[in-house]
Amino acid sequence: MFLFLHFVIPHRLIPFHALNAGNLKSIFEKLDKTNRIGYSNQYWLGVSSSKSEAGVMSFLSRMFSKQQKKRQDDNIRQDQDPGKPEDLPILRDHKDNINRIKEELGNSTDVVIREYTLGTHKGAIVYFDGLADSKAISDFVLESINENHTEDVLNEPFKFLLEKAVALGDIKVVRDWGKTYQLLLSGETIIFLDGFNKAISGSTRGGERRAISEPTTQLSIRGPKDAFTESIRTNTALIRRRIKSPNLWLESMKIGRVTQTDIGIMYIKGIANEKIVEEIRTRLNRIDMDAIGGSGYIEQLIEDQTWTTFPTTYHTERPDVVASQLVEGRIAIIVDGTPFVITAPALFIQFFQAPDDYYFRFDISTGIRLLRILSFFLALIGPATYVAATTFHQEMIPTTMAIAIAAQRENVPFPAFVEALIMEVVFEILREAGLRLPRAVGQAVSIVGALVIGQAAVQAGFVSPVMVIVVSMTAIANFSTPSFAMAISARLLRFVLMGIATFLGFYGISLGLIFMFLHLCSLRSFGIPYMSPLAPFNIHNQQDALIRFPIFTFTERPHLISKGNIVRTGTNQKPGPPKKSENDSAKKGDQE
Amino acid sequence: MKRTWKILLMIISAVPFLGGCWNQKELTDLAFVMALGVDRGENGHGYKLTFQIVNPGNVTTGQMGGGGGLPIAVYKSSGVNLTDASRNATKEVSRQLYYAHTNVVVISEKLAKKEGISNILDALDRDPVFRTTTQIIIARGTTAEEMLSTLTILDKLPVNNITKSLDVTENMLGENTKITIDDFISGFVSKGKHPIANGFTLVGKKNKGKYKSNIDSTIPEVIIKTDGLAIFKKGKLTGWIDGKEARGAVWVLDKVKGTDVNIDWNGKNNAINLITLRSKTKVTAIVKNDKPVITVSIENEGNVSQADLPIKLTDPDVIGKIERKMEKSIQKEVLGTIKAAQKQRSDIFGFGDVIHRTDPKLWKQLSKDWDNRFADLQVNVKVDSYLRRSGIRTNPFSVDLK
Question: Would the pLDDT of A49 be above 70?
Fold first, then answer.
């Protein structure tokens, strides 16, 4: 119901300049004072609209208020979380340090503590087995420590360790336990030395990692075949390899009280809009949860609008897609442990662009992209149209077809809507089962499904063959959307439209579509209108919207996304044989 | 406040259900009336309607259909007017009569002659479901009931036999042209034009058409056939024009899409056959001495399709001669039709409308007594014919025989 309301009340446009986090609140408060809208709080909740909706929101929040109280109780307990950094200093006695580690990590068996002697000094090396690269530790730390050293070097053992003995690239000095644990858990090796209230941390991150493999969800015929992995460092490297620019900046942070998940924000300085970067930073900093399960969590915690079926951030497992979006001025958010990188801001049309659109010539790409948009709408209104046409608008079906459908439906016991609903639900169950089952069983399920739905149900007369055609058409059309996030949105709305079509026919479908478009136009992704460059229309950014124009016309970046720096190409990039004047000058050059 | 919202939510969530499946009807609850027949009621009172209703299960082949039964069922009902009769039919028909797919309205000749059809048209025109693109035809020499109950061998649905054969004759022969309810009504209300309608007749044993045996033989006992154009005057059928005369009318109405013309050559009758590929007719009026003169100019392109005597078709002079002859032949035919119409005092060509457009003041005088004025209207027919090709031969083989 709330969704319905949300559809009805079009959103107020959020001016782009209002994005700056600092002035956002004051702007909205001002708006509030002028008695226009109740933005100031709702904006952050991802809900923004006129007063009446704010009212609904407050009603909802009051409904949940009990839970909120409970949450506050949780907060008190969470203060003792082990993940909370403790700023206690490292002790001088390395034995004490070792005991402390053992005690605090509960004698976890994967902690390796190796004691050593450097001349007369004793010390210990601590690392996590599996997280750290044990070969690097033995080659570059233990071996150099165990060599025979001259006495005078050993007069300053810590300095010796730091500058000479530990032959690793990235070395830090740590003084407190919070930092120590953080590094330790990231796979680094901590070297304690007796008598010093500080320790050395050497970068030995390693352990088992999945190799780079082919993308599994976003396939491309001609594009590169590498995909992101679960490791954030591999992922940043994949992107950096594609953009060899010092302006490609990477900011890191850790999110999750317990999980301390590594998050990277990548953008190209000078192209990406500073305000959007700042906004993303602010939204990420706001996240205060115990665990970050993956980029899906981050996506849902930073998106502009929760009450929508449409994705307002884009995610991909292809580094080439991320690279091209970075160059367009978008910002990538990389989450450790997830092979999907989030990019923002995301536009509606972006979800219909496949990487192959750019690897093939424009005419083919345009045709295929239009086909994709068509199939999106087919998937959206397919069953709804069937229900509407057969129960309200029989006059619209060509005579022969109407008779054919009537003949097939003659013995079907259900009204068209129930028939459609049953088939669609059964199909959704099959699809879900096929997705969740082990691969070997999945095959069997699809065979059973095809036999049960396609044949037995029709032969038994429970459903008409037309319905099977409609359902399979819808399913195939749905699969052709390149982005899964957008496809499932159509998958859900399909049922809503089907319901409306049952009551109001085509009138209902058009009503539903109008509401859908109103809603789409009201959506924002980090302040950028979701439907741009179509609405608001921008003639300069049409080369990659509905129609994919030839590459040489891609002269400007999306105006709204990379605000200042929009020029992409030099002049006159159009390919072709040399012009006559050029030819002449070239010849002249040869003679000279 | 909380209560208010709860109530509001409930009210809003009820809104979509309040429509309550308005106007919803399942396909299987509808009786698709493919053709509607109108006959004179008993003793001349009211109307008898005939509904050719499709039996979907028997029409489609494949898994679900093809039961082998008859593709149509014909129901009858009577009433004082069309709506009354249609509603009365529900006593017999188990489904709701659905007219959106009705392709043809068949009116019996008797009804059209005696009562006229003006009382029928309003019901057809007013009903939102009934299409005004539905064709109107006259059952010539038979009743609408007999025509609609006749099974046809090539088309499973007999109504398709009527509409398709009209389509084909219009394209290939040019003696008929599609007349929809819309066309008919616009002719009916116009002072300067009389409406026409296509005639269909039954050939053979009329009462045998409704049996399956009719389509169990390669030569059916009864067939449905196009037969002339009916001329209407004040809503009543006043006469028929047939064959070449009908084609002349179609020619003037600029509806000829394709036809063939025979010409004589060197004393041999119908020696050369020419087919028309494109034809364009323009009707203009000029006023001479306060008297209107109508000029019908026909531009006609064609091919040689048959030449049964040695003739040099490679010779441009010969071609020119053939073209002149063709022009003469068409001119004769069209003039003949116009004469016939003038004799019946029925302006089926819409010459009155042309005069109305050219000289509205003059038309005001003429319109009072247009039927008589039309009878002695001066009409010139100008034909321009062009022979474009001679098929896949040049000279006929008889030239080589010499």
Answer: no
In a domain, B13, yes or no: no
Q: Are residues A8 and A50 in the same domain?
A: yes
Secondary structure (3-state) at B360? helix
ipTM above 0.90, yes or no: no
Q: Rounded to whole angstroms, how far apart are CA atoms B374 and B188?
A: 17
Find the helix packing angle between A51-63 and B2-18, rounded to 10°: 110
DSSP state of A132: B
Cα separation of the two ends of chain A: 80
User: Assign residue A419 a region: left if phi > 0, alpha if psi is -120 to 50, beta otherwise?
Assistant: alpha
pLDDT at B140 (0 to 100): 94
Shortest CA distance to B344 belongs to which of B190, B236, B222, B265? Answer: B236
B397 touches A at CB < 8 Å: no
Could you give the 3-state DSSP secondary structure of residue A196? coil
Give the helix ranges, DSSP H, for A138-216: 143-146, 157-160, 177-185
Range of the domain at B228: 27-241
Owning domain of residue A275: 232-346
Can you give the pLDDT at residue A63? Answer: 53
Q: Indicate the pairing of strand B268-288 with strand A199-202.
A: unpaired
Question: At A495, is the secondary structure helix, strand, or coil?
Answer: helix
Q: Which stretches of chain B score pLDDT less than 50?
A: 64-66
Cα B345 to its chain centre, rounded Å, is 22
Q: Say if residue A11 is in the same domain as residue A101.
A: no
- Domain membership flag for residue B17: no
Distances in Å between the alpha carbon of A503 and those of A395, A509, B18, B30?
Answer: 18, 10, 9, 19
**Interfacial A residues in 519-558 facing B (CB < 8 Å):** none
Same domain, B247 and B224: no
Of residues A43 and B373, more confidently modeled: B373
Contacting residues of A for B155, CB less than 8 Å apart: none
Q: Give how far A236 is from chain B: nearest CA, Å.
A: 48
Contact at CB, A395 and B21, closer than 8 angstroms: no
With CB atoms and an 8 Å threshold, state whether B56 touches A410.
yes
A392 and chain B: CB distance < 8 Å anywhere?
A: yes
Q: Which of residues 42-81 of B touch A (CB under 8 A)?
A: 54, 56-57, 59-60, 63-65
Q: Is A50 exposed, middle or buried (0-12, 13-18, 19+ CB in 10 A)?
A: middle
